[in-house]
Design a protein that fits this description.
Layout: E1 2-4, H1 5-10, H2 12-20, E2 25-29, E3 32-37, H3 67-73
Parallel strand pairs: 1-2
Antiparallel strand pairs: 2-3
Length: about 80
Amino acid sequence: MLVNIHEAKTHLSRLLERVARGEEIVIAKAGKPMAKLVPYQEAQGPRSPGAWQGRVRIAPDFDELPGNVAAAFRGENE
């Protein structure tokens, strides 16, 4: 559902009731979506470090910046 800012301010309690039932509400300004109201979800529990271990590969040259990229950061044309 898409509502404008004025309507959202006027009917916030009503919109929040709809969101609590699972509906998503998009708030727009001049027809352009600006924000989305979605149902709140409790955190699943504490995150544990290392969950992605073995799934991500970092290339050996990761920290090496190519010369042309470094030059571009310095504002030089190559």
